[in-house]
User: Fold Acyl-coenzyme A oxidase from Turnera subulata.
Amino acid sequence: MEGVGVDHLAHERKKAEFDVEEMKVVWAGSRHDYELSDRIARLVASDPAFRKDNRATLSRKELFKNTLRKAAHAWKRIAELRLSEEEAKELRFYVDEPAFTDLHWGMFIPAIKGQGTDEQQQKWLPLAYKMQIIGCYAQTELGHGSNVQGLETTATFDPQTDEFVIHSPTLTSSKWWPGGLGKVSTHAVVYARLIVNGKDHGVNGFIVQLRSLDDHMPLPGITVGDIGMKFGSGAYNTMDNGVLRFDNVRIPRDQMLMRVLQVTREGKCVQSDVPRQLIYGTMVYVRQTIVEDASYALSKAVCIATRYSAVRRQFGSQAGGSETQVIDYKTQQSRLFPLLASAYAFRFVGEWLTLLYEDVTKRLAANDFSTLPEAHACTAGLKSLTTSITADGIEECRKLCGGHGYLHASGLPELFAVYIPACTYEGDNVVLLLQVARFLMKTVAQLPSGKKPVGTTAYLGRVQYLLECKSDVQNADDWLKPAVVLEAFEARAARMCVARAQALSKFSNPEEGFAELSADLAEASVAHCQLIVVSKFIEKVQQDIPGNGVKKQLEILCYIYALHILHKHLGDFLSTACITPKQASLANDQLRSLYSKVRPNAIALVDSFNYTDHFLGSILGRYDGNVYPKLYEEAWKDPLNDSVVPDGYHEYIRPILKQQLRNSRL
Amino acid sequence: MEGVGVDHLAHERKKAEFDVEEMKVVWAGSRHDYELSDRIARLVASDPAFRKDNRATLSRKELFKNTLRKAAHAWKRIAELRLSEEEAKELRFYVDEPAFTDLHWGMFIPAIKGQGTDEQQQKWLPLAYKMQIIGCYAQTELGHGSNVQGLETTATFDPQTDEFVIHSPTLTSSKWWPGGLGKVSTHAVVYARLIVNGKDHGVNGFIVQLRSLDDHMPLPGITVGDIGMKFGSGAYNTMDNGVLRFDNVRIPRDQMLMRVLQVTREGKCVQSDVPRQLIYGTMVYVRQTIVEDASYALSKAVCIATRYSAVRRQFGSQAGGSETQVIDYKTQQSRLFPLLASAYAFRFVGEWLTLLYEDVTKRLAANDFSTLPEAHACTAGLKSLTTSITADGIEECRKLCGGHGYLHASGLPELFAVYIPACTYEGDNVVLLLQVARFLMKTVAQLPSGKKPVGTTAYLGRVQYLLECKSDVQNADDWLKPAVVLEAFEARAARMCVARAQALSKFSNPEEGFAELSADLAEASVAHCQLIVVSKFIEKVQQDIPGNGVKKQLEILCYIYALHILHKHLGDFLSTACITPKQASLANDQLRSLYSKVRPNAIALVDSFNYTDHFLGSILGRYDGNVYPKLYEEAWKDPLNDSVVPDGYHEYIRPILKQQLRNSRL
Ligand SMILES: Cc1cc2nc3c(=O)[nH]c(=O)nc-3n(C[C@H](O)[C@H](O)[C@H](O)COP(=O)(O)OP(=O)(O)OC[C@H]3O[C@@H](n4cnc5c(N)ncnc54)[C@H](O)[C@@H]3O)c2cc1C
Ligand SMILES: Cc1cc2nc3c(=O)[nH]c(=O)nc-3n(C[C@H](O)[C@H](O)[C@H](O)COP(=O)(O)OP(=O)(O)OC[C@H]3O[C@@H](n4cnc5c(N)ncnc54)[C@H](O)[C@@H]3O)c2cc1C
Ligand SMILES: [Ca+2]
Assistant:
């Protein structure tokens, strides 16, 4: 695949018991998606303008300018090659560097689409599509994040001039965090409290121009800048997350996004007939893409750690032979293979979420809101679960690489630094779990009334059975039966939900009860979300899957995914008596045996992600396994090695050695 | 404490139910230690030469030079102020920046002390103490880390010239990682295979001069440089971790460290009467300091997250009042307070380890090696446990700060990046757990022979009782009885050890069994180590502790520590039937109530660490809680804000906006 030279992992690739090319198609989603991503990934990888191995040594200014350069180059290539929307998106994905374009395409345009009237869309979208304006999404403030209803920025209607006056009344009302805001965006969708006739109508979106289209200077009344360095080197520092203050900035009335709520010329607030629930549709969409991204980020980390674990040898040499590959240690397997399985699991649940989103969209168009709360809770929960596991999983992959994982050249430090905010943005993961818990408690509370739970909560409709059932497992192989595994996970989630609902009912004030028990409630949400992932993985492997041995490998990964969770959350399963300690021990035996089965296929399973060395950005994860010479080569490129004797020797080292500092002691 | 101005956390400080000044003494270890650290911390904080808030924006070269400058300044101040050894060490600690001096004082000198003969010590130590030479510790190689016996560098005795020839036979034998090696050290203790008369005598240490004392140029045959960027910005990039290759470099015979093994003029290898076990003494010492450092790092993170959680408000405002402090959310408490308790727990177990080390040293002097294996296993296990929890805990603290935790200015990104290698160096944490497991299995295997387990394994002597006992807990308050908690932890650890030993005995080949079950064995080690921490915390709170309310707070933290582990590892406790699900649920109720008790004392409990704002290095963790104005101020200092219109606008942004790139499409 990559270049020429020796393939140090060839012996590993020979061990594979399945058709790797077919697995690539499964991972990509379809043959079309596979060919598309393969083509665009190579296009990016082969273009020197997109190199990214130098990010760590660039200063903040150089780094940022470099990102601007890449964005312009990408835009140019998209035009030159006449790429379709789909191809352009894929290209931005493989450029693999946070940039203002993410927010322009991913938040600014969708906000106008979702919240703008038809006229507003007709006016603004063509400008945005052609990038004649560049936009960002300015919601969060210095003092206000998760609680959007608490935002302080005001948009006061002035009937005299038919304008809104956008204002930052306090320091804490400064907009803070929006990506692309600090240095690039000409426009923003700004969220502010709508004040009409002295009355506060809550938070709404407004299109506000920030900078002159002539010379890029901030418009009068606008103070804007970058909020400074973030986690790590390279990573998210390519992005100009910004701060923004308004000193009574005036915008025309028609720049309030009025799809749902309108302000008339006379200053009347009129609710349109478009239902408010529409915004949940957008959230379902955005969170589905985050789940997809989780599978990409985790699979990158797993790919690096798996390949390096096959290259790295440590201990166990017999009679001068080579040492044991660390991937052969059961501790290494028990840390690595569940993450490999999770990457696949998240990929498939993400794929299923796209179907869910299509379904939601269709229903919304038909004014059917019945499944929306469930779909919303489901995506909120899966966003939380998959991003948390991915963030921790990347760091675990780094540890799996021992000392060398700590080198920037391993790719893992930057992957971690760039990934972790996914646990915070688009909903703090804990806040999201509590939302899921609210939905679950409501669902349980409504069971007696006969209301049938839908979609991913349908199992709660069988709660009587699930409270009483006993697992049939008698030997380790029973844990390879889909129905057995599914029932254990359903019983656990159902029993945890019911137990929490009962505990809540003991409080006279339900809100107090919810607050007091919130940590336990969040655990029930996790159990529910894990059940979703397990059940979607099982559904996937029950489909027809072509390719020699492909389905077999996916089954193995599916059971690893389920049984490792069972082991990790054993307390849940045992305290609710869903399984016995003996059955738990059999599950653990089965898990060990599954690790042995996946072992010979491990390299091929990460090859199936079809990542180029450019995209991986890791010397440890190189396709050809030629790690040591390349690490050695790379070291000498560090600026510190520009001179043999370091800058500072004469001022600071020599005086110590020559006792010129200690003389003052005498 | 810090400066003037308003104290935004004054209302929190008023809530404290204990004497903070007395708690500071407890945390420091003694009044002497408190006064010492307080004085030196202020000395460093008030010296502008030691500022560290600019690390993230310095280029690698500037950063490194800056560290050299600080090291020289520190050395100068130590001389000017005639600081004692103890004070000098404290000063380096509060300068709080990885530097070559860490390895010189922490590894090079101890290696010579531990492995050098009396004559060697007399020759080299005075030079090192005065820093007329600067040394590092060169063990790890590009291809060899954990398995020290696998090192490839050779030291071949040449009887003709009475020298050793140090050589790097392969690329993978290049020394790789040693701190201080890349650019600074004049000398190194190099570990190499001793070859005498063609026979390999295993790995030994050698003092090798690397650079000229005249002009700092590498000596002939030596290739040396920096290995490049590591995780994060600032952080460990202040250190010149290095690469080193030898091309037949000759050193005099008397530069082999010969305390244990000697090579005579004639080329005979003679074992001295100094027992090999001595090296374990050094390992006990080094790992004890790592446990101590874990408590410092974790307490820093907890201090930042706790203060900010009291400043940060989100949701729950009633009728225009201010929102709820996020520290009042039970989910926040259930994530934060166990880490607060862990910081104290690690502090006390670290304190106890210093006593253990004193005991070991005394016994070694008296040729009593009986407790050494137990002491060694104990420190290995505690190093693994405390560093793993601390690494994860820092990241959890960052997440607890929401979006702002992701800013470099929060201090948490750099704290994480600089801390995490502690999980890898001085023994990979998983490899260490497996060593502990070996010791535990041996201990269990020897029980039938009547051999009494000592020290931290003494409880295994009561294994019969522990296999049968049943927990007496009947209500939540029973979980506040030391004996009850201790018995549950002892029973869990004992039962896990015995179960693993039984599983092992089913294998005909014990090594195969150990390999196959290693993941489960590592879990038994964790259970054992957690028991040690719990028992030492309980011992601590059973002592006389002066100060109003101090003991009470420590008791609360002690039970939080124990019960949160019980909750997290519930599967262990239930599968071994140490407690019932009902008792587990009572423990959880108790835990929630303990969180409420610690809540009003939380700020005072982190104030008790007595950290200056300089040492904390975090705007979110500021003593005065004046977070928002300072974040705002800080943002404008980023180099990107040097100009309003960013560098790159004309080349890369304007052409996009003006459609000059898309023209090529037509
Ligand atoms: C890299 C990055 C990019 C971003 N990009 C944008 C952008 O483009 N546009 C934009 O508008 N914003 C952006 N943001 C901001 C982001 O959306 C917010 O940071 C996020 O919503 C979290 O809110 P917060 O920071 O206020 O966290 P907080 O809510 O303050 O969280 C702090 C702690 O409080 C806890 N907490 C809060 N509320 C509750 C509750 N009710 N119950 C229990 N616990 C609670 C949380 O769990 C957390 O532990 C970005 C942030 C980052 C880090
Ligand atoms: C910041 C930093 C500073 C350092 N400073 C120094 C220094 O000053 N001097 C010096 O000499 N060295 C130094 N080192 C090197 C350090 O000591 C090694 O990195 C460390 O010993 C781990 O070894 P490794 O890198 O070979 O990891 P590996 O052993 O290769 O670990 C890779 C993986 O294999 C697993 N593994 C390895 N062996 C086994 C086994 N037997 N059973 C099960 N699993 C196994 C590990 O758990 C890990 O997951 C430093 C390293 C770092 C990161
Ligand atoms: Ca894709």
The longest helix of chain B spans residues 330-365. Chain B has two domains: 108-274, 279-607. The first strand of chain B starts at residue 135 and ends at 138. Residues 158 and 164 of chain B are 6 Å apart (CA to CA).
